[in-house]
Specification:
The complex is a heterodimer of chains A (about 160) and B (about 525). With about 160 residues, chain A is an alpha+beta fold. Chain A has two domains: about 10-65, no CATH class; about 75-155, Glutaredoxin. Chain A has helices at about 10-20, 25-35, 40-50, 55-65, 85-90, 90-105, 145-155; strands spanning about 75-80, 115-120, 135, 140. Chain B is an alpha/beta fold and about 525 residues long. Chain B folds into four domains: about 1-100, 3-Layer(aba) Sandwich (Glutaredoxin), CATH 3.40.30.10; about 135-325, Rossmann fold; about 330-420, Ubiquitin-like (UB roll); about 425-505, de novo design (two linked rop proteins), CATH 1.20.1440. Chain B has 21 helices and 16 strands. A five-stranded mixed sheet of chain B has the order 2-1-3-4-5, with helices on one face. A five-stranded mixed sheet of chain B has the order 13-12-16-14-15. Chain B has a four-stranded parallel sheet with strand order 8-7-6-9, sandwiched between helices. In chain B, helix 7 packs across helix 10 and helix 17 (about 425-440) runs antiparallel to helix 18. Chain B is globular. Classes of the chains: A alpha+beta (about 160), B alpha/beta (about 525). Chains A and B meet through helix 2, helix 4, helix 5 and helix 6 of A and helix 1, strand 8, strand 12, strand 16 and helix 17 of B.
Amino acid sequence: MSGAGQYSDERAREIIAAHMGLEGPAMPILHALQEEFGYVPDAAVKQMAEALNISRAEMHGVVTFYHDFHRAPHGRHTLKICRAESCQSMGAEKQARAFLDKLKLDWGGTTPDGALTVEPIYCLGLCAHSPSALYDGEPIGRVDAEKLDEIAAEARD
Amino acid sequence: MTKVYIPLDMAAVAMGADRLAAAVTKEAAARGENIEIVRNGSRGMLWLEPLIEVETPAGRVGYGPAKVKDVASLFDAGFLSGGAHRLSIGKVDDHPWMTRQNRVTFARCGVIDPLSMDEYEAHGGGAGLARAFQIGPAATIEEVTKSGLRGRGGAGFPTGIKWKTVADAPADRRYVVVNADEGDSGAFADRMIMEGDPLSLIEGMIICGYAINGSKGYVYLRSEYPQAAVVFGKAIEVAREAGWLGTNVRGSGFAFDIELRIGAGAYVCGEETSLLESLEGRRGIVRAKPPLPAHVGLFGKPTVVNNVLSMATAPMILEKGSQHYAELGVGRSRGTMPLQIAGNVKYGGLCEVPFGLTLGEIVNDIGGGTLSGRPVRAVQVGGPLGAYLPPWLFDTVFDYEAFAAKDSLIGHGGLVVFDDSVDMSWMARFGMEFCAIESCGKCTPCRLGSTRGVETIDKIRAGQNVDANIELLKDLCHTMKFGSLCALGGFAPYPVESALRHFPEDFRKPALEAAE
């Protein structure tokens, strides 16, 4: 899992500077910041706005538009469960609901011990192996309740 | 040295291909067998993944779906020389799934090492670009136009005409942008090309750049496809090292380069103007058209925005000539369509066939019906904005016009099969919910209509004023269809209306509970 780096203004400045040669650098910078810190800190957004010469409001609008970018740290592990139609045709919705209920979470929630964040995702392109999920970047096909429980247990370790 | 193929395709990896490759390597070492593992793309027979293929004097023999626990028995059965095993599917090229296809865009996918320029060229790669350089930009566009190739992203706009519009637009810079934001559920063809034959996409982009006199190409790939990002990123390096990218493409004097950009989970960025906004570093808000991106596109410059499949098909059209491609298909839908069959289906995968099969042939003959074994109740074609079709419309011919005539669309060619346990009022609700989650917010019908749609369907499902609320829902769908700025709000009513039309009984059950 990425995002172990502690936030520092200096490190954020380096990351921003490294991308300034690109055409339209905002998205690559945001991905790099999240990769480094595990989230997109407000302090980094302020620096970005200055570097890109746009208002903070505008920069804030970009960060919050995209589902992938989050403004606070997530759990140590992230499980993304597909909710799209193909996975629903194989019972994904009920299965996910039962899993979330068991963890006493809603979509996007993190377990109280900070181990696992569970997010919805809309299609991983693994539709011939529905239901599918992505655990810390690892794709999983034909996910069943047992597999979800295994992941929850593994995340706690 | 025996060549053993184990796919790197994300679907194969999701079913354990990486662990399988490690186990085969270990077992071979323990037994003193001299093997070379090639991580290929997928052949598209996804229900057989992970599919191990072994190169034998008689051809490539396949075993699948193979698990780590099968490895020892595969060695015991002599699979390295094509030995019999319960997982054997025989010669892969002779499999009925393969023999009924006419692979054009996917000719090399699953066959070659996707990151080997030598293998790419040995299988015809590069010939299209060489011919483009030979005949010049104008004749290149002419070839693509005459082939009848239409944009495979969904709208079906003629690719050659788009290229010509951009080439003719006066500008100091022009861009090539590939839309790899394949967000439709049931669609995975773009992903498979980018993982299984990425050099064909790169070659297509170079051809396009040359034809329109552009020097820079961007691929906008969705973040939900991490494996495609890795493989395509490596392929760009392979192409650059081979002299295909840079200031002097293959010694032609033409300069072109490609950059991979990753999206951030916004479905609407599959809409071309929203995609361009995102590339420029802004919120993915849809732009009003006109001006078309072909005139005022990325950074205000004339821009070709093409789907992955359209672009990856261009090299073959140049190589074999427009006539070869135009001879396939029916009516105004020329060439082939890589069908993606998914959901509750027995044989899920990618099957590239000329346009003209019926929906029933695709679902029942190729897909083999449902995985659950229950009757098929509905098929959603074309992703979350596509209509749900019932079995009594299975005689519909799979092409752009026939589907439009049935108030539906083929979109990106993805089909999701549902059995009779599906609750269609729930799926209609989900269609509206998805639109509400993904709406960019620019236009009112989409932004508010989708949320009101969820609420209205909730009332119908709860049995409140059902007749009046169904009327209201139909009216809302009409407003969204004709009042929205882009296809997200404009097509989101298709699944809802088709569910209402074909499955009215699902909206009249006494007080339904939301699926829990």
